[in-house]
Amino acid sequence: MNNPESSLNIKWEGPFSLFENQDCESIFSSDKLKSPGLYLWTIPYNDSYLVNYVGISATSILDRLETHIVHYLSGRYTIYDPEKFQNGIKERIYCPSGRVRDFLNNNLPLSQIIFPLLKTFKLLIAPVEQEKRILERIESSIIKILRKDNVACGFLDNQRIIASLWREEKEISVTVEYNALKTFGFTETKITV
């Protein structure tokens, strides 16, 4: 394992949409998608952005986002009522059973829900050239911060976090820039990972 620097900077960029011709730029127009880094799946909420998912990619943000989209379209992710979801309420319409046939048997009604749900998301990205373990530590720190806020915690879908540093790891100070964005439940400009 490389000895990482004792500090690094991340800058959130966006918001981006998954689709063209919406109220913000399409994520697929960004020249930063081929970089590794962090990303947030959010919705606009009370003049800020409410985070539904915090993720990383050690290779390409684009590859990871495409995987998420495929999982939504193939029934591997929970599908929420889009109208309620855009208001910060997670009402499940479909929960993955692990059996493809269950999803296929409900494909037509679900496909009419999946696309409106995907249109509710606004994505924020932070390209960061770091090894996967460092990205996981930053991701976990953000999740822990979001879990301290009742509204943010209730909307967050992340389950897994890193509980502690490995013995040989040193803390890293991360400076966070928001590009004039407000993220509900996560406003820190310095975090320690």
Polypeptide structure, described:
With 193 residues, this protein is of the alpha+beta class. The protein has one domain. Helices cover 31% and strands 25% of the residues. The chain is built from six helices and ten strands; from the N terminus they run ββββαβαβααβααβββ. The chain has helices at residues 61-73, 82-85, 100-105, 107-120, 132-147, 150-155, and strands at 7-11, 13-16, 37-45, 48-57, 79-80, 92-94, 122-127, 173-177, 183-184, 190-192. A five-stranded mixed sheet has the order 2-7-3-4-9. It has a three-stranded mixed sheet with strand order 1-8-10, covered by helices on one side. Strands 5-6 form a two-stranded antiparallel ribbon. Strand 3 (37-45) and strand 4 form a beta hairpin. The chain is globular, with a radius of gyration of 17 Å. The mean pLDDT is 90.
Provide a short characterization of the protein structure:
This protein is 31% helix and 25% strand.
Structural topology:
Blueprint: E1 7-11, E2 13-16, E3 37-45, E4 48-57, H1 61-73, E5 79-80, H2 82-85, E6 92-94, H3 100-105, H4 107-120, E7 122-127, H5 132-147, H6 150-155, E8 173-177, E9 183-184, E10 190-192
Parallel strand pairs: 1-8, 4-9
Antiparallel strand pairs: 2-7, 3-4, 3-7, 5-6, 8-10
